[in-house]
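Study this pair:
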Amino acid sequence: MTFYVDNETDFSFDFDIEKLIKDLTVKTLEYENVPYSDISLNVSFTDDENIQSVNKEFRDIDKSTDVLSFPSLDFESPSDFSFIEGNEADYFDPETDELILGDIMISIDHVISQAQEYNHSVRRETAFLITHSLLHLLGYDHMEDDERLVMETKQEEILKSLNITRENG
């Protein structure tokens, strides 16, 4: 499992961010019964200005956001990996044989403000956004209310299983 973590800001985490990303990824893959454990994932931490620019470029939305997800997989339905069989060359890194899951971009500005707004820790907010984005990378969305409820339930169950709650996150 390979994680590329890039912090483009001056913000310093007071916890091990790479361990948090790994723990959340492992738990999410287990929770979703993903048949591949060797994956690669890119996570970038940036500021509101940069994420706004990327949001405008890729989604034509000219405002900042908390997290953007860029999946490398083409799911027909969430966490259904059947499309990969016979197409491995399209989805695996030829040098490492790891499944290329995708990219996550998180705004530190949003992490800090949302942690304050929801009265929990920066660690808990970061974990929430990473888990949310991992589910997007696995094909989930929240455009409809029923989809949103599924994602919210999964996020909370994954975080709770790692004892990352609003109270002790």
Remarks:
- The first strand starts at residue 2 and ends at 7.
- The radius of gyration is 16 Å.
- The helical segments are 17-31, 48-59, 88-91, 108-117, 122-137, 145-161.
